[in-house]
Each structure stands twice: as structure tokens, then as C-alpha cells.
Amino acid sequence: MKKILITGGAGFIGSHVVRLFVKNYPEYQIFNLDALTYAGNLENLKDIEAEPNYTFIKADIVDEALMKDLFEQYQFDGVIHLAAESHVDRSISDPLSFIKTNILGTVNLLNAARAVWNGNFEGKLFYHISTDEVYGSLGEEGLFTETTAYDPRSPYSSSKASSDHLVRAYYHTYGMPVVVSNCSNNYGPNQFPEKLIPLAINNIKKMKSIPIYGKGENIRDWLYVIDHANAIDMIFHKGTTGETYNIGGINEWKNIDLIKKMCEVLDRKLEREPGTSASLITFVKDRAGHDMRYAIDSSKLMKELGWKPSLQFEEGIEKTIEWYLENEEWMNRITDGTYEKYYESQYEKR
Ligand code: NAD
Ligand code: DAU
Fold it and tell me: Residue limits of the NAD(P)-binding domain (predicted)?
């Protein structure tokens, strides 16, 4: 039986990856290691927590000795590393926690794997999950490819860029089998409502203003989270060691157009007069160093491994909105005092 460590499995993307692996690979033992920070929520995995091939380990990847002990104890064969501080705005107010988790935490995992694998890399893989933000910001034209030079601009993307380089350094220096993927903006169920799409759904539902940074002209490429999880499955099993794969939705939206689209869908679903939700749009102070446009070329992944996004955005956003409306309790439990306090403090600053 293969022992697979998935870090950050209680978070948004991680929980979808854990579910996919637990369900599709009963022959694997899946270990979900997560510190349960504000972003980690085991409720995301309620439906699979009793499965015999699933184990949860509460641990902080910044704890070097603990990572060594856990690798010794469990002898993991594969690592899918998603644990990270993931929100750009938080990285602007508190860069150090990003450096600790995203850089130091990644090196702790690499060192622990290296110590236990001890040069015997047969059947082993360290798969690092990263972001398209490492490539910087695009103008009106062009797409990020796997060979685009790194140009991170926020503390978040700089910490992820650093971790990407370190993972590749362990491949070149120690021969550790690694693979890296860089993905665009994910959306779907279970995303923490500090990120644009769930934040907007929550605010629209509660008739609160929708904060749009700057003029709302920044562009993001959106991918349904299950499509990212499927790409991760494919790359983990069929990707070439030492390679990088870009993952994106071929689905660029200006923030303001995305929000207007969501307002239309929510007016319909909440049976409001057309235009009611859009009246909540509020332009606020721009994010510092706000990257203008991300767009990604996934043709390597599509050609080499046969991956493609399964959902059109119109279908994906409807499904996502429905999920948040049907899972009010999930959202209510998340938006308790702690979250509200953070949200209010961010909002006051603008
Ligand atoms: P998230 O913030 O929802 O979840 C992160 C998880 O990591 C949480 O469960 C948290 O408890 C855990 N964690 C944080 N610090 C930890 C630590 N020190 N030790 C152990 N666990 C810790 O993040 P997400 O949006 O699901 O992103 C997951 C990964 O995918 C990240 O590496 C992120 O950089 C990358 N990524 C995200 C997106 C996106 O759009 N969300 C896109 C591309 C890549
Ligand atoms: O590109 C991949 C990245 O996508 C991931 O690596 C990050 O972990 C993930 O958080 C996401 O980063 P973004 O900064 O693009 O996502 P966010 O949802 O925070 O913002 C999306 C866009 O919306 C961005 O241009 C900023 C803007 N925005 C965001 C918030 C939270 C607003 O206009 N208002 C808001 O309130």
C-alpha cells in the first residue's frame, strides 16, 4: 500500500484533493497533515473522515523536528504539498507568517523526505502545488508559460516563488524526484470567504457592500477547484519528474465583469429585482502592488497528459453559487467572530 502525505488537506483545494484520492485510490493510505489555521476546516471532509484509508494528523510544517519524526514514523512514499498561507492581502499585513509556512515549512518537508528516503527514490515523489502569481503581472497580451521568468510582486507570491525554487533545487542537488504545478485562481465549494468569489456571494446574500479594489479592471483566470484536483491527480500519477506544469481555466475575467455576472445569477436565485445585487458594488482603495492580469497557457498539460477543464465557467459559477446558498451553516460557522474581526479590520483600512 502506498502512503501518501497530503499537506493542507483541511483547506479549500486540499480538501478536494484529499477526497479525490481517498475515494479513487482505496489501495493508498492517505494522510492529511494540517495545522488547522484560520483557513483549515475539517468540516470540509466530514463525508470521508471515517474511510479506512484516511488519517488526519494535526501538525505545523514549521516544526522541523516534528516533520522529521512524522516521516520516520509513517515512511510516506509520496507527498502532495498544499499547506500554505494563501491570501495575498494577509501577506501584505503579515509577511513573516508567509515566510515561515511557505518557505521554511516547505524546506522542513523536503529535509524530512530526504532524510527518510535516504537516496532511495524508487517509487517516491515530492509534488509541490504552486501558483501562477510567481510569474508576476501581464499586460493586455500574452500568457504565462512554464518558461516565463519568475517575477513575484507580493510577499505571498515571493514566498511561493522561493518555495518553488527550493523544491527544484532539491531535484538538481540531491536527485530528489519532484514535480511542480502552477495554477490560476480556483473557485468552488469550501473556499474561505476572504477570497473574492465566496466573499462576494456572502455579502450579496446579506445585502452588504461588495468591495472592488481600484477600478475593478484587474484580470484573473478562474478554474473550478475539481478541475484543479483532477489535474493534480494526473500530474501525480503521470507527470515527468523534474518538470513543471501550468494549470489554468482558459477563462479570463475582469473583476468587475465577474462580479456583475455573479450579481445577475444571485438576483435570479434569490428572486430579487434585477440590479438589486449590483447596487452593492463599492469601489475601494486598491490592493498595494495589485497585479494587473494573470493568464496561463496549460497546453503542455493538455498535450502531454490529456487534461482539460471539465466545466464551462457559466456552469461552474452557477454550481458554486448554489453550493454556498445551500450550505449557509458552513458559511455561518466560518464567519464567526474571528473572521468578522479580520474582515472588518481589512475593510476599515481602505
Ligand atoms: P487555504 O488557505 O484554503 O488552505 C491552506 C491550508 O493549509 C489550511 O488548511 C491551513 O490550515 C493549512 N496550513 C497553513 N499553514 C500551515 C502550517 N504551517 N502547517 C500545516 N498546515 C498549514 O489555501 P488554498 O487556496 O486551498 O491553497 C492551497 C495551495 O494551493 C496553496 O499552496 C496555494 O498557494 C496553492 N494555490 C492556490 C490557488 C487558489 O486559487 N486558491 C491557486 C493556485 C495555487
Ligand atoms: O492566481 C492564483 C492565486 O489566486 C492563488 O495563488 C492565491 O492563493 C489565491 O488567493 C488567488 O489570489 P488573488 O489575489 O488573485 O485572489 P483574491 O480572491 O484575493 O482576489 C481576486 C481578485 O479580486 C484580485 O484582483 C483582487 C480582487 N479583490 C479581492 C478581494 C478579496 C477585490 O477586488 N475585492 C476583494 O474584496
Answer: 5-320
The response to whether residue 186 sits with its C-beta less than 6 Å from ligand 1 reads yes
Q: Which long-range contacts link 70-74 to residues 24+ away (Cβ below 8 Å)?
A: 70/33, 70/112, 71/112, 71/113, 71/115, 71/116, 72/115, 72/116, 74/3, 74/5, 74/31
pLDDT (tens digit, 9 = 90+) per residue, 297-325?
999 999 999 999 999 999 999 999 999 99
- Number of domains comprising the chain: 1
ipTM of the complex: 0.99
Catalytic status, residue 133: yes
The reply to whether 167 falls in a domain is yes
User: Would residue 156 show up in a list of annotated catalytic residues for this protein?
Assistant: yes
Q: Which ligand does the CA of 14 lie closest to?
A: 1
Q: Which DSSP state fits 297?
A: -
Which whole-number Å values give the CA distances from 66 to 5, 10, 11, 57, 108, in the listed order?
Answer: 14, 19, 21, 11, 9
pLDDT of residue 337: 67
C-alpha 35 to ligand 1 mean position (Å) = 11
Ligand 1 atom with the smallest distance to the CA of 130 is 44
* Residue 120 Cα to ligand 2 middle (Å): 40
Q: Is the pLDDT of residue 349 over 60?
A: no
